[in-house]
Design goal:
30% of the residues lie in helices and 28% in strands. It contains six helices and nine strands. A hairpin with a 4-residue loop joins strand 8 and strand 9. The protein folds into two domains: 115 residues, Rossmann fold (3-Layer(aba) Sandwich), CATH 3.40.50; 87 residues, Alpha-Beta Complex (putative n-type atp pyrophosphatase, domain 2). It is globular and about 45 Å long.
Length: 225
């Protein structure tokens, strides 16, 4: 199929895109929605401004859309963007969030498109381990749940981080993959990247309970090896 991939720069949408390519589909476009408010129900907000660099790293054209970020209204904003694309379907990264999956499915039905969600229903721990073992370099850029303090901002997703997330899940019942809004990530490198992202300047915004690592500048650099 010829697909458009919804991306945010985070791990789930990036892994879903990779699965689409690995399974033989053509990803013709990347689609990134830019919410005008920080509490969007549907879309990743921290560092979405880096998606043009992500698109350049992947070598896939990026289509940018603006959205109010208002609940339900943002779905119409997404639908208007997708309606203009010459594709057969949409690939997205929901795992257990029925809110996201059902709404993307509905938009696709309305537009006569296939909704392709390769991570849907998979084990959360297996997804994290696939990312770590599969050559994805992701860092935490937003933390919004009890137990996740400022030390997580900029931390790499690795086996040690997975162990700590497992302990936090057991103690506070958080989602391992952050699908309940517990945290956000940024993928700096991935198997399909032609070059990797390097952060050259950033600031940490922390309010005592939650915070984000806001990337002020970044560039693409050659991959080692």
């Amino acid at each position: 199929m010829r697909l458009a991939a919804l991306i945010s720069g985070g791990k789930d949408s990036m892994l879903a895109l990779h699965h689409a390519v690995w399974e033989g589909h053509e990803v013709a476009y990347l689609v990134a929605m830019f919410p005008q408010r920080a509490d969007s129900w549907m879309f990743h907000v921290p560092n979405v401004h880096l998606t043009p660099l992500v698109a350049e790293a992947l070598g896939i054209p990026l289509v940018k859309g603006l959205t109010s970020g208002l609940k339900e209204r943002e779905l119409e904003d997404l639908k208007a963007v997708l309606a203009k694309l010459d594709v057969d379907g949409i690939v997205s990264g929901p795992v257990r969030s029925r809110y996201q999956k059902e709404r993307i499915d509905r938009i696709c039905r309305d537009l006569g498109l296939v909704s392709y969600a390769p991570l849907w229903g998979r084990d959360e721990l297996a997804i994290l381990r696939e990312l770590v073992e599969g050559g994805f370099e992701a860092i935490f850029v937003g933390v919004f749940a009890y137990g996740l303090d400022s030390s997580w901002l900029g931390r790499r997703l690795d086996e040690e981080a997975i162990r700590d997330l497992l302990a936090l899940r057991d103690r506070y019942d958080i989602s391992l993959i952050g699908e309940g809004g517990e945290y956000e990530t940024l993928v700096l490198d991935a198997p399909l990247y032609r070059s990797k992202l390097e952060i050259t300047d950033y600031e940490v915004l922390w309010d005592g309970y939650t915070g984000v690592l806001k990337v002020l500048s970044a560039r693409l650099v050659p991959k080692r090896g």
